[in-house]
Amino acid sequence: MVFQEERITEIGKKLHQAGMKLTPQRRATVSTLLEYQAKHLSAEELFTLIKQEEPEIGLATVYRTLDLLTELRIADRVTFEDGVARYDLRCENQQHFHHHLLCSVCGKVEEIHEDLLVEVEQEVLHKYGFKVQDHRLTFHGVCSSCSENTKQSEHGD
């Protein structure tokens, strides 16, 4: 809970630097994103969760808040196999968006926070003169749990 409050305070400072306030509605959105960050929630899913605590909040407010957080690079909009825009808070001091592992069997999404593309970015700069500002990478495959289940069923266990 202490970590969550620290992150909310940090995000509030970023908003203030951009001339915005951390309104109760924005705070509720950020708090819910933090609480459920492993779930990669859509705007509608966030709205449903926030509405339980803040019944006066509207869906349009949640969308506006998410657009603002995305514009300020506090959050990122991601789209997986289902085509639904989902939201993911950036880690503190994260230069680039983190990567994802998407299981094609169960749909589980895991995050990779290491920047695996530093050398690729340097190569792009060297070969093409293009300075990468950000990137998104999703690896599609089979997670360890589904791989293990497949092995067990193949062996008749």
Automatic annotation (TrEMBL):
CC cofactor: Mn(2+); Fe(2+); Zn(2+)
Keywords: DNA-binding, Iron, Metal-binding, Repressor, Transcription, Transcription regulation, Zinc
Gene3D superfamilies: 3.30.1490.190, Winged helix-like DNA-binding domain superfamily/Winged helix DNA-binding domain
One of the protein's GO biological processes: negative regulation of DNA-templated transcription
Record: residues binding Zn(2+): C103, C106, C143, C146
Cofactor remark from the record: Binds 1 Mn(2+) or Fe(2+) ion per subunit. Binds 1 zinc ion per subunit.
Record CDD domains: Fur_like
PANTHER family: FERRIC UPTAKE REGULATION PROTEIN, ZINC UPTAKE REGULATION PROTEIN
InterPro entries, per database record: FUR (IPR002481), Fur_C (IPR043135), WH-like_DNA-bd_sf (IPR036388), WH_DNA-bd_sf (IPR036390)
Source superkingdom: Bacteria
Stated family: Belongs to the Fur family.
This protein's record includes keyword Amino-acid biosynthesis: no
Residues binding Fe cation, per UniProt: H135
UniProt-recorded name of the protein: Ferric uptake regulation protein
One example GO MF annotation: DNA-binding transcription factor activity
Pfam families xref list: FUR
